[in-house]
Amino acid sequence: MTTGIMRSSRLALALVAGLGLSACAGLNPTQQSTATGALGGAAVGGILGSFGGNAGLGALLGAGVGGAGGYLYSQSQNQRGYGRGGRRYRGYY
Q: What is the model's pTM?
């Protein structure tokens, strides 16, 4: 009985992960950075929140902070010309 539930859980997890990754296919670089930051922040926030007894709140706060950080990072890179196909190496090789 338990092995059947575990097998179904693994299949469901694999399907959800695949759908989640396929949803990111058409994003621009700013959206990708924001989503990556939010995902990473939610993971870290959930882990840290579990130590305090509220993993959901930790994940929510972490996603917000990570998403904002990813967006700000992307905007910084765009201003420097890295996100638009501009100068990448500034003459140094």
A: 0.64
Alpha carbon distance 20, 67 (integer Å): 16
Say what angle helices 55-79 and 29-52 make with each other, to 10 degrees.
Answer: 150
Distance CA 93, CA 83 (A): 19
Give the tokens for residue 34.
Answer: 């924001």
- Distance set, CA 71 to CA 1, 66, 67, 77 (Å): 46, 9, 6, 10
Condensed to tens digits (0 to 9), the pLDDT of residues 33-90 reads 898 899 899 889 999 998 988 888 999 999 999 999 999 999 998 888 765 555 555 5
